[in-house]
Amino acid sequence: MLAPFARSLTYMLALQMMANTNTTKEAVQKPPPSLYKRVLPDSCTAFSSSSGKRIFASALAHNGLKSFYSLIQQFTTQSEPAYCGLTTLVLILNALSVDPLINWKGPWRWYSEELLNCCLPLEEIKTSGITIMDFACLARCQGLQVEMTYAEEDGLSKFRQAVKEACVESSPSSFPSDGLFDRNQQESSINTPSPDEKLDKVLAVSYSRKVLSQTGSGHFSPIAAYDPESDQVLILDTARFKYGAHWTKLELLYDAMKPIDTTSGKSRGYALLSFPDDKFGCCRLSSKSEATAVQPMSLLFSTKLSQSPARKKYKDFLNKLTQNVTLDMVVDYWTQSPDTSVWDILKPLSVPENQDQRESVNALHRLIDDAWENIDGTHEAHYEELIQQESNGKAAKGHTNILHSIFVVFLASLEERSRNAIVRQAQHDKKTHSDLSIEQLLNEASLIATEIETSDQNDTGCPKKRCCKKRRLERWESKATT
Peptidase C83 domain spans which residues (predicted)? Predict the structure, then answer.
């Protein structure tokens, strides 16, 4: 009599186990979350709401829109979840009418996030974002003057002054203070802009969203307007997929800068950015520089600020030499000690997915091979074991291997004239290398040379002794005079 019962019990247990298994599979296969925007908390007022429009009208009446019109023309959405800092800077650079001196698409020169390739690797920024110090470094590299301030307990008045400096016009508005204005007077003001109205300073803030009762953690955005009547600022939130532009209390925003940024160990803060009018300071394009240029952007390597000590150590080695540096010296430096590797100062970039970019990288590798053979006929065959041992997984097939990297560092260690002679001799001997490959390899060496040269120049928080734009401008002007 118990046998049928036992079979039934076993069958029921088996069904339950199957159900649990299916439930587990469903949990594993559960699709990732899908979100469409967030509702602004009560601490913020949507720019497009009725209340937001009233605050805007008050800001207009009190001359608090100095930055608004230039910024709103460039307002855009960050292309990566962690790109808020980059997008804020791109927005500001374009609002300040800074010429990047490089082509964006076709013949057009314009800033976009992928052009901000100094100070930190873009791949690293995609995952971890940037600090206010990184932001200042990137801004300086593009020729901006930066007044950066960390939030302090007694610094509210200083922040309010920075807001007014960026957002409040010094000359009175032509509109009545009650916000009601005559149409003819309005059109006259709009159609006859004064040359003095050109935007000169923009304020960027780094703050904690949590203090504003928003979701997320650290964030960057520009401040576009200020209404002294309600003491509110307009945040052009670059994460428009999450929150639109909104007003919030100035004091609350300042409080949102006080929490410690776990990456830097310091509070967040704000930066006043301006673009000087002098030729180099840093760095307005002169009238004779009219050619098209290609930015010295690395196709082979990325570098980090944390690698500066290793670069300084190598710089000290070069400075102590009593004779001209040779390829053998550089190879020995990076290979003789188990504690020293060229990967201490740079990192090979991943193989590009784009076919054209991948071919450009391969062309650079072939050029390096030929240039090496002109100096040392043994070349890579002699160092095959070294490539396998020293790469240590960092230079898989298609990447820039350790010898390619050491050779670029060797070029970077030479005077510019010697560097050019070696690379162009390879082009002359083989007749197969394009001018574009020659120029790019020289750019690669120039970038590394600058990193080595400035490895001990960190007093301004920026690793560049000369900003990236200044170096590009100098290269342009040297071409224009030859």
Answer: 30-278
The residues annotated as belonging to the active site are 84, 219, 237
Amino acid sitting at position 348: P
Residue showing tokens 């300084």: 312
Instruction: Work out the pLDDT band at 152, boundaries 50, 70, 90.
Output: confident
Q: Which domains does the chain carry?
A: 44-181+190-274 (3.90.70.30), 301-480 (no CATH)
pLDDT for the residue numbered 432: 85
Give SS3 for 233: strand
Q: Where is pLDDT greater, at 1 or 305?
A: 305
Cα 257 to Cα 246: distance, rounded to the nearest angstrom? 17
DSSP code, position 306:
G
Residue 71 and residue 94: Cα distance in Å, rounded?
Answer: 8
Neighbours of 204 (CB within 10 A): 25
Left if phi > 0, otherwise alpha if psi is -120 to 50, otherwise beta: which for 12?
alpha
The torsion of the CA quartet 241, 248, 142, 458, rounded to 10 degrees, works out to -110
Pair 361, 299: CB distance under 8 Å: yes
Residue with tokens 């609002």: 95
CA gap 400, 326 in Å, rounded: 21
The residues near 282 (Cβ < 8 Å, ≥ 6 apart) are 140, 143, 144, 145, 276, 466, 467, 469, 470
Predicted confidence band at 70 (pLDDT cuts at 50, 70, 90)? very high
Residue showing tokens 């594993």 = 28
- Cα 227 → chain centroid: 31
User: What pLDDT, on a 0 to 100 scale, did the predictor assign at position 377?
Assistant: 54
Segment 89-110, tens digit of pLDDT = 999 999 999 988 877 888 888 9
| Type of residue at 55 | I
> Residue 273 corresponds to which amino acid?
L
